[in-house]
Amino acid sequence: CEVAILPGGQWGRAVRWMWSAGLRWPRVERWVGPVDVIHETDVHGVGGRGRYVATIHDTAALDHPALYSATSRVAQWLMLKRARRAEIVVTVSEATAGSLMRRGISRDKIRHIAPPSSICVRSIPRQLAGEAPVVLMVGAVVPSKGITDAVVAFATAVREIDGAQLVLCGSTRDRRYLREVRGVIRACGLQDQVRILGYVSDESLKGWWDRASVYLCTSYAEGYGLPFDDALLRDLAIVATRLSPFLERAKPEHSIYWCAPGDRGAIADALIEALRVEPRPRSGQCDVRPVGRASASGLLTAYKIAAADGGSRAHAMDGR
Question: Contact at 8 Å (CB) between 317 and 32?
Answer without folding.
Answer: yes
